[in-house]
Design brief:
Uricase, two-stranded antiparallel ribbon, 2 domains, 39% strand, eight-stranded antiparallel β-sheet, Urate Oxidase, purine metabolism, oxidoreductase
Length: 286
């Protein structure tokens, strides 16, 4: 049980320069006994309102260095403060505020929300067990208008899909990776300097001057995973889901026009989905 969607903005001031972190936190606990379920005895139950207040107090006292570190702080607090807690899991997602710039000069206290994908993380720990950290990006919409196809697939009496060697590749991406057992990582450095988000874009799109052909959604998902694993050594296991959006060419003959893939209609449902989990061999064997 726990408290979901604890939303707040943490403002940090360094002189005239301000920093913001707006987050949504979900924290769940599992207790060492089930008396509250079986007997209606609430003696060991930490109220969800208390859970919310603890999250807010930790944000006030510790600040939010990174959402991963804040998730670690929350897990450690519950695990070390309450002897009745057997398991704790915290999920945090961040509102994508970016500092405004004017002629290349960063503004000291103004920001713009740029929804180019939502950064999130999870931290979880069992009593007497390691603290494990995950991170990721979701709701990231990507499109390329050519250099994508789907050919040579299995056909049966139920197959109506035509083969294509030039189509729009469009999808909403969910990407989650594991750092394994918690170590002294600089999570913001991994995010910004190693540029995990940019790795996704590079693998999806290919070189900016020529692109790269995608023979399937599956191959694109694998390319994203392999690129991140090759660039970010701290990532151990990575899951990628790509929900695809089809675009059908609108038949405009009755309007007296030839439509050479210039006007297309999105097919919102049903939609295809491809999911794959890939990890380093040494981590999976462990």
């Amino acid at each position: 049980y726990g408290k979901n969607t604890i939303k707040f903005l943490r403002l940090k001031r360094e002189g005239k320069k301000h920093f913001v972190k707006e987050v949504e936190v979900c924290t769940h606990l599992r207790l060492t006994s089930a008396h509250e379920y079986l007997e209606g005895n609430n003696a060991a139950v930490i109220p969800t309102d208390t859970i919310k207040n603890i999250v807010l107090v930790l944000a006030k006292k510790n600040g939010i260095q990174s959402i991963e570190q804040f998730a670690i702080d929350i897990c450690k607090h519950f695990m070390t403060t309450f002897c009745q807690v057997a398991y704790v899991k915290t999920y945090i997602q961040e509102v994508p505020w970016q500092r405004l710039q004017e002629n290349g000069v960063p503004h000291i206290h103004s920001f713009i929300c740029v929804p180019e994908g939502i950064r999130f993380c999870e931290a979880e720990q069992c009593k007497n067990g390691p603290l494990v950290v995950f991170a990721g990006i979701k709701d990231m919409k990507l499109m390329k208008t050519t250099l994508s196809g789907f050919e040579g697939f299995h056909k049966s009496e139920h197959t109506t899909l035509p083969e294509r060697n030039d189509r729009i590749l469009c999808g909403e991406l969910f990407c989650k990776w594991s750092y394994g057992e918690c170590k002294d990582f600089d999570f913001d450095c991994i995010w910004y300097m190693n540029k995990v988000r940019e790795c996704v874009i590079e693998a999806f799109a290919g070189p900016p001057d020529c692109g790269e052909y995608s023979p399937s959604y599956q191959k694109t998902v694998n390319s994203i995973q392999m690129h991140i694993l090759s660039k970010v050594s701290q990532v151990q296991v990575i899951e990628v889901m790509l929900n695809n959006t089809f675009y059908n060419v609108l038949d405009m003959k009755n309007l007296g026009l030839t439509n050479d893939k210039e006007v297309l209609i999105p097919v919102e449902a049903p939609y295809g989905s491809c999911t794959c989990t890939l990890g380093r061999k040494r981590f999976l064997e462990a």
